[in-house]
Amino acid sequence: MNYLLTDYIPHEVNKPWKKFHCHLKGLQKSLCHALECTSEHLSYFQTDISEEDEELDARDPEQVHKPREWLTRKSAVYAGFFCNVPDKRNQTTDSRNAETAGAAETLTPFQRQMRTYQLGGGNLTSIFSLLYKEPQTAGKKLETIIGLYPENLGRNDLDQTELVNFIFCQIALNCTLPGSSKLLPLQKLQDLSMKFNASGRNISSASALFLISLLFWPETNNEELDSRSSQILLSALDALQRLFEQKIQHVSLRKSRKATHFFLAKARGLNKIVHRSAIEKLIKGTLSERKLKWLGGEVWKTKEVVQSLKRVEGWTENGNLFVRGATRDSKIRVFPRHSASLPNANENVTFYLGFSFDGVVAFDIQVIE
After folding, report:
1. What is the pLDDT of residues 79-115, one digit of tens each?
2. For 115, which of 83, 179, 300, 329 is 20 to 30 Å away at the CA?
3. How many domains does the chain divide into?
4. Residue 2 CB contacts under 8 Å (≥ 6 apart), including other chains
5. Positive/negative CA dihedral, 10, 13, 15, 21
């Protein structure tokens, strides 16, 4: 492990392995990158076996298409190899901070990353899986993950990948344990996310852009963002759509059902973000009946869903759907999840707003009489 993670090369293999040192020493980073890329890809699209179908899949031993579960398991195995390995790359920093820092802060970034992976918070897919698969224990596990980070976290303390995962753990924790003392307010999470560059050549990852769309979307129809927040949101949505258009070119139609992870609620602060798993719990009936309610739109007529989610006002214009942007003269395009639901003429409409990796999307579009 010392050989794999540091510049150290044992004398016995220095010359015999000369052609392979760079490949072997890059193995850990290559594995991490592969897991991140796989996680992001799964965040775009529903798998052939969706979350609603996983119970059926468990009854069918021949069905093996469970990529989300596979990735969560593989991520934990990957981290298990490195989780308890001393990170000699940061020994100077460790010794300098050990006297004043808490237990979490004495972890090197690498050690923290490995333990986070092992607990299930190393990528978006694993974090979302906690909400689906472990609703009873997810809160405590997420608190443990967040406890690995320094309490007075600054924007420069983490790289972009770790910062994205930390903020998503905060959002997931609020979804499952909203009273937790580990939670940071929305304003603090917005400040942390300012590190992401959502425009220009240094474009952020799709995960970071998706996160910005969640954090900066206005809580009310009439809320006007300041110019900086407005620019951050609009730039992120534009970049997110461009990345999606690149991604969809390489995906077959059969596998291109886009996943919607969160919905806009009536509440404020972090509570404005509701995960799909919470909506699932509000839908009564057998598995097959619940699936039909999603497909047929009955979900949006369920009393508990209507009470929880917020209807957003917008308008259709030449076959496109818009909402007012951060200023009265700006507008944001929203993509209907089902294009057939758009009215033929230009109309004022309301709808439920969802957050996906292809941008913000509309469900249950209704014309305002």
Report:
1. 988 876 655 544 443 433 333 334 455 778 888 999 9
2. 179
3. 1
4. 8, 88
5. negative
